[in-house]
Amino acid sequence: LAKLVQGLSSTDPAVQKAAIAETEKRLHGQETGKEEESKTVVNRAVINTRASDIANAEAVNTDGFVAILEKDAKERAEQRKRNEHLANALKEKGNDAFRKGDYVTAVQRYTDGLERRRDKQELYTNRAQAYLKMEEYEKAIGDCEWALKCNEKYIKAYFLMGKAHLALKHYSESRQCYEKILQIDPQKESLFKDCMNEVNLEEKRMKDEERAVKEVQSGKLAALSVKELLQKLARPDQNFPYYTGAITLLTAAVKDCTEQTLFRTNNGFSILKDNEVVRRGFCAERKSPAEVDLSVSLLFLWQAVCAGNEENQRLLLTHPDVKTQLPKLLSSGVSEIQKETLALIALYLENENGRRLLVRHQDLTRWLQILMMFVNSADGRASSAMDVLSDLIKEERFKTQSRVMLSTDVLPLFSQSLTSAKLVNQAALARCIGIMGNLCADAVIRTRMAECRECWQACLKLVDESFDVRTPKFQECLFAVLGLMMNLLLESNVVIQSLAVDISGRCMSLLGETDGRIVTRAIGVLSRVLPASASAVEEVVKGGVVKKMIKFLKAGGQITSSYAVKTLSICTRSNRQAQEDLVKSDKRFSVLLKLLDSEDEMIVGNAALCLGQCLVVPGAATSLLNSDVVMVLLKHAGGDATRTSVQENAAIALGKLCVAEPRHMFQLRQLNGLAILNSSMKYLH
């Protein structure tokens, strides 16, 4: 019975269907039993009185079973109604994102909806449409197949599957999908004809282009020089396949700097100016497949003539059409064009002169946003785009231009990428986060990012998801986002103050991670966020932060120790519980005394500060009577550390020590400490 109820509650349609069938079978058996009972004649044999008890028990069990089924059916109907409502709401959110061109978010919303209703066919086809826009054709086909499992006569699924197969050049499979549409609904003959014409035209175009290229390569053009090929390209009476083939041959002819020079001296960079057909194809907003091939061949050619040649690079970048088209090619959405545009740009970034040339002659206002979008790409474009960004952020001009659209375009896109971390290219996302962290070296960019609440919330969401996604790539995203948070926490604002409790809480949860790099950065974030909120300090102290920091300090590691002792100094500044926890966890202050011997002045200064703040705890100063704490503090108070906070904190700690336990004064006098302390007063404010 329990198994049957579980089956009825299952989200798997197949399991649910089997359970319903079994239930109906049992109920039918009960009804048959009742009919047989009404037809029974009197049995004159000896009646077994126990049999009636068994029958009564069976009746009770049957009634209970039916009641359970009825209750379960009612609950399932209510749950299904709720799920239907939620799935529809998520579908609308996905549709809204799709209309805005945010296909990654659309996919996420449709996926969330399918978690509520796995048999909702339109969610599968809507997600398939988004995958088509993202050029994830195999995934689109998979979703269409799932939609057809929900409804084998779903025309939209066949239509989208046909589109996906066509994009993959699966012409036969595409035709089969469109034929299915006509079989299901003969009234769709007009749609069927349009679709079949599209397949036929695309297949014919591919064959024509292959034939044209073969003709070019096997004909007289193959034997021509660079100069002669450029003359042929100037002819305005040929089609796109002809020019594509000729440009391909020209690219092959440019083998070294001699051919590069010949290309330049024979006006090779005037191809776009002299040939309107080539220019029209290259500058077309929405390119046909033939125009795509032409543009790709031009990009290959320019890579060949510009590789290692600064003069050619300058001439190409100063060409008006190229200057205008580069950002458009990057954001074209055509993978082949984007790939070769990125490769061309990479040539300029191989050395400082090329990089300066690119920055000087290009309006880079939108480049940060455009290149960031490649984190949605699953192929090599994502890595190439991050390589370009990594080089561009070395230029101050790029940082300055990136400020223009930072708040309105870049940060919303970046926040969305963080929110969709499970769906995007995580290796590229980790690099993108690191790049944004490096951009924080620019004070204006850092201030704006730190004031962006959506950005902070997206960072926290990624941290939350890291507990469920344990892959190495996602861990790199987590490591990078913690570094970004540390950089942003160099700022202080109301957004950080309002989120300090949440940020510190996430960091406390990360202290149990096995990756030491992540633990170190989590402590680093703690050390920078806690000064923003007394409530955050109170919460982490309740969570046992003092004991955890002492544990990390015992383990060593200079960077971790620096962050951990700073965290302790913040917590013990005004929180009595933290002071008592430290005295209890660090017996006789052995850990802090060891830190006072560090060569890192920041560690020494914070250790002295922390020690001084904990001496108010009864018995703390007395526990140090037989130690060399007076001599150590005196050495730092009268030392020549470059950070005056070392002398200041050591002098204050020494003063508090002697006030809390006067017996330390004896050793202080022996060491001529009063004179040293007096000279240290200049550091006190």
UniProtKB/TrEMBL annotation:
Pfam families recorded: TPR_2, TPR_8
Biological process according to GO: axonemal dynein complex assembly; sperm axoneme assembly
Gene3D superfamilies for this protein: Leucine-rich Repeat Variant, Tetratricopeptide repeat domain
Keyword Repeat: yes
Coiled coil residues, start to end: none
Alphabetical UniProt keywords: Repeat, TPR repeat
GO CC terms in record: centrosome; cytoplasm
Keyword Repeat among record annotations: yes
Repeat (TPR) residue spans along the chain: 121-154, 155-188
Listed name of the protein: TTC12 protein
Upper lineage: Eukaryota, Metazoa, Chordata, Craniata, Vertebrata
